[in-house]
Amino acid sequence: MTTRLGLGLPQMKQYDIGRDIPDVARTAEATGYESLWVFERILFPEPARQGLYGVPGLPWPDNYRAVADPLVSLTLAAAVTSRARLGTSVLVAPLHIPFQLARSLASLDAASGGRVVAGLGTGWSHDEYAAAGVAPFDKRGKVLDELIDVCRAVWGPDPVAYEGELTTVAPSVVGPKPAGDLPILLAAGSPRASRRLVDRADGWLPVSMGAEALGEQWAKLRELAEERGRTAPIRTVLRANTLYTRDAYTGEDRRPFQGSVDQIVEDLAAHAALGLDEILLDLQGGARDAQELKGLATEVYEKARAAGV
Question: What CA–CA distance (Å, rounded) separates 7 from 1?
Answer without folding.
Answer: 19
